[in-house]
UniProtKB/TrEMBL annotation, chain A:
Domain Ribosomal protein/NADH dehydrogenase: 39-112
Organism expressing this protein natively: Petrolisthes cinctipes
Keyword Ribonucleoprotein tagged: yes
Protein name per its UniProtKB record: Large ribosomal subunit protein mL43
Family named by the database record: Belongs to the mitochondrion-specific ribosomal protein mL43 family.
Localisation per UniProt entry: Mitochondrion
InterPro entries listed in its UniProt record: Ribosomal_mL43 (IPR039927), Ribosomal_mL43/mS25/NADH_DH (IPR007741), Thioredoxin-like_sf (IPR036249)
UniProt-listed GO biological process terms: mitochondrial translation
Entries under Gene3D superfamilies matching the protein: Glutaredoxin
Automatic annotation (TrEMBL), chain B:
Chief place where the protein resides: mitochondrion
Highest taxon in the source lineage: Eukaryota
Organism classification: Eukaryota, Metazoa, Ecdysozoa, Arthropoda, Crustacea
A GO CC term assigned to this protein in UniProt: microprocessor complex
Protein name: Large ribosomal subunit protein mL44
GO BP: any one term: RNA processing
The RNase III domain, residue ranges: 83-213
Cell compartment(s), UniProt: Mitochondrion
Molecular-function annotations in GO: double-stranded RNA binding; ribonuclease III activity
InterPro entries named in the record: Ribosomal_mL44_DSRM_metazoa (IPR044444), RM44_endonuclase (IPR055189), RNase_III_dom (IPR000999), RNase_III_sf (IPR036389)
From TrEMBL, chain C:
CDD domains: Ribosomal_L13
Native organism taxonomy: Eukaryota, Metazoa, Ecdysozoa, Arthropoda, Crustacea
GO cellular component: a single term: mitochondrial large ribosomal subunit
Alphabetized SUPFAM superfamilies for the sequence: Ribosomal protein L13
Record's protein name: 39S ribosomal protein L13, mitochondrial
Keyword tRNA-binding: no
């Protein structure tokens, strides 16, 4: 699936945050996580190892997350995360190793709960400019408001170089000055 | 026979070329979406139809919504413990339980026990009515004091309008659902109505007041309720009615001349896309400008802009203090200037923090 | 969207009406400038999907100046679609038939070949002389500067200026200069 198709299906939007999170204080958005696994099946081996080794540590570091364990006989293991905004996320951990599950749990822990979608921008603001909006007449001289159109002064091209006539006149003036100086001396 | 074979052969090659082309074709007007494995042709209408059906069922009350508390994996004690920890607040367990218990739930429980034949039901539960009243008071009180201190030149009418907005059911319910009250509230209906959620949030504030004191409660209100204003235009919450009259009143009290609107720019006057910029001047001094598709609209916008500049609520003013910046803010007890009293002379005496 | 946001958007995407005096201007160079304004590429808000092109009112299009031998050698091709329907019109012939046509065709050819082309051409208003209807002149909000100076003809100088002008060779021969009374030389 290309990026374009992904966007077509799953949508795109600006980066957003639930409930101005972080403006006042940061609230972890993961509210509960359920580990579903089988006590005997090989597919849940990694999950059982995670529960034995790392789960207590996880729960200790995240007192705001309620952890549930749900053993189910002969069914594949999975993680179910529930977020404060009412969304939930499901990840199948069939035949996953302990390290893999650790990474998935970390992924679920850090999410906001909003669907993973293409970000049209990495930053977003409701006040795009504190200088005020741009307009086509920004920094325009107010004198132009009383001008009558068509206006020759506004229309004439900027002079880039002298014309031959002007140069000739200049030469003539110079010559005239020299002759006058000679006369006086 | 030979022709049949030949036909079969040509059919085969054409199929093969079609398959080969599948990977190579550039999308044009003749290719279909299915060539690129894009199912959008049916996916979008299908999802739209599902959403429509869901909406109809929700309206009729037929759409089943599971109560999270009816699942096997549900531990209310653990949930309450995590609730406080998540918000980095210390709640007394009993008070928090009371705060999350709606009166309708207690009524329902008593009714159920009576139906089962218990003549005098003994329920060791208290509802959140008292706590929510206390919480609502803290919210309105702190919000107005905070806003007065943060926006010292904003008229008192505006302060009370914004405070009213913050303690409205819509905002409080949104905050309440946002901190995870949806599953925790004990109430008759499911999912909890916005009014129930708003009351529960007020009760949570009241419970925090009872558990951890006023300072923590005010910080809580600031971080969750007042933070709702960040990224919002305060002028769209409170809009001055008849701005020109208000502006002339203010200027008259300040000893300035009448406000004089003048067109600064216009373009496309005779078209449907005409655009005007109007500036407001008093004694030949610029005090505000606005845009509009008609001169009248531009004048109104310019007047609003002049008032925003006077009240220091433009886009370029410092944002409301949240987080560490809020700790230095001294709350303001006395009310701000009202619109009737507002003048430049009086505004000069206002100490801004 | 708030009322302020709405009018800000209106102002940012406000249409400008530019006046352009085509007198003694090379239409092929002028078209480059006009094209930018019709498409809106001169604006910082330009984007392919933005409709931010401005209007251009061109006056004096009958006084355009084609460079070199373009008047005689430039050919405009047209085909009616029927057999033997091809026709070739020289630039001077076309200009004689419709003095706005050369500029219009030049701008049209410089615009991008897409579906917006016709709509952008609708924003170009060409007039052969400086007589513009008031309904259009009232819309004008700015004037575009010409790209080259208008050459000054001998009859544009006052008599004193001509007399004061230095002469390399004294005028003894009876020169016939167009537009200048013989006595002034």
């Amino acid at each position: 699936m290309t990026t374009k198709t992904w966007r077509l299906f799953w949508g795109s939007g600006p980066a957003r945050v639930p409930l101005q999170n972080g403006v006042g204080r940061y609230v972890q958005q993961l509210q509960r996580i359920t580990f579903k696994f089988c006590k005997t099946h090989g597919g849940s081996l990694g999950m059982r190892e995670y529960i034995e080794k790392d789960l207590v540590e996880f729960a200790r570091h995240n007192p705001g997350v309620v952890v549930y364990l749900k053993p189910r006989r002969h069914r594949s293991p999975c993680l179910k995360a529930e977020y404060l905004n009412g969304e939930d996320d499901y990840i199948s951990t069939q035949k996953h190793t302990c390290e893999d599950i650790k990474k998935w749990v970390e992924y679920l822990r850090c999410r906001s709960g909003y669907p993973v979608e293409h970000l049209i921008n990495y930053h977003h603001t409701d006040h795009p400019s504190i200088q005020g909006p741009w307009t086509p007449w920004l920094h325009r001289d107010h004198k132009l408001n009383v001008v009558q159109y068509p206006n020759e002064e506004l229309s004439t091209a900027h002079k880039v170089k002298k014309t031959a006539t002007e140069e000739l006149m200049e030469l003539y003036e110079k010559q005239k000055m020299l002759t006058e100086m000679e006369k006086t001396s | 026979m030979a022709t049949k074979l030949k036909l079969g052969h040509s059919l085969c090659t054409s199929l093969l070329t079609r398959v080969a082309r599948k990977q190579l074709t550039v999308r044009n007007i003749n290719t279909t979406a299915s060539v690129f494995a894009i199912e959008a042709r049916w996916t979008a209408p299908y999802l739209r139809d599902l959403a429509k059906r869901k909406k109809i069922m929700e309206e009729k009350g037929l759409f089943p919504q599971d109560k999270r508390s009816e699942y096997i994996e549900w531990n209310y004690d653990a949930e309450l413990y995590a609730f406080g920890k998540r918000l980095q607040e210390e709640f007394e367990d009993e008070v928090l339980r009371a705060a999350l218990t709606d009166a309708s739930y207690i009524r329902q429980e008593i009714q159920r026990q009576q139906d089962l034949g218990v003549s005098s039901p003994a329920l060791m539960m208290s509802s959140n009515e008292e706590l929510s009243d206390g919480g609502a008071k803290v919210i309105t009180d702190y919000s107005s004091k905070f806003l007065r201190a943060a926006l010292p030149l904003f008229p008192e009418e505006g302060i009370s309008a914004v405070t009213e907005y913050l303690s409205s059911e819509v905002v409080l319910a949104e905050v309440g659902f946002g901190i995870g009250l949806r599953d925790l509230i004990l109430c008759q209906e499911h999912p909890p109505a916005p009014s129930t959620a708003a009351r529960a949030l007020q009760a949570v504030v009241g419970a925090l007041h009872a558990s951890s004191g006023l300072a923590r409660t005010q910080a809580f209100v600031r971080d969750f309720v007042l933070a709702h204003l960040s990224g919002k235009d305060i002028n769209s919450i409170w809009k001055v009615e008849d701005p020109m009259k208000v502006l002339s009143g203010i200027l008259a009290r300040s000893g300035c001349g009448e406000p004089e609107p003048r067109i600064i720019f216009q373009s496309g006057k005779n078209t449907i896309q005409a655009v005007y910029q109007v500036g407001i001047y008093t004694d030949k001094n610029f005090i505000g400008s606005g845009y509009g598709e008609t001169v009248g609209e531009a004048v109104e916008q310019a007047t609003h802009d002049a008032l925003r500049r006077l009240f220091h609520t433009t886009d370029s003013t410092t944002p409301l203090p949240f987080g560490p910046a809020a700790a230095d803010l001294t709350l303001k007890e006395s009310s701000n200037l009202t619109l009737q009293d507002w003048s430049l002379e009086k505004a000069k005496n206002v100490v801004s923090c | 969207m708030s009322a302020v946001g709405r009018v800000q958007q209106w102002a940012t995407f406000g249409r400008m009406w530019y006046l352009f005096d085509a007198k003694w201007q090379n239409p092929f160079h002028s078209a480059d400038k006009i094209k930018d304004i019709l498409t809106g590429t001169h604006k910082p808000i330009y984007h392919d999907l933005n409709d931010c092109g401005d209007h251009v009112v061109v006056i004096n299009s009958s006084d355009i100046a084609l460079p070199g031998v373009e008047w005689e050698k430039r050919v405009y091709f047209h085909h009616t679609g029927y057999a033997k329907g091809a026709s070739w019109t020289l630039a001077w012939e076309l200009h004689h038939k419709d003095p706005t046509m050369i500029l219009r065709k030049t701008v049209y050819s410089k615009l991008g070949k897409n579906l917006l082309r016709r709509g952008r051409m609708e924003k170009l208003h060409i007039f052969p002389d400086d007589k513009i209807p008031d309904s259009i002149l009232e819309n004008v909000s700015a004037q575009l500067r010409q790209m080259r100076p208008i050459p000054k003809r001998l009859d544009h100088y006052t008599r004193e200026e001509v007399e004061k002008f230095p002469k390399v060779v004294p005028a003894q021969i009876n020169l016939h200069l167009i537009g200048v009374p013989h006595t002034s030389i």
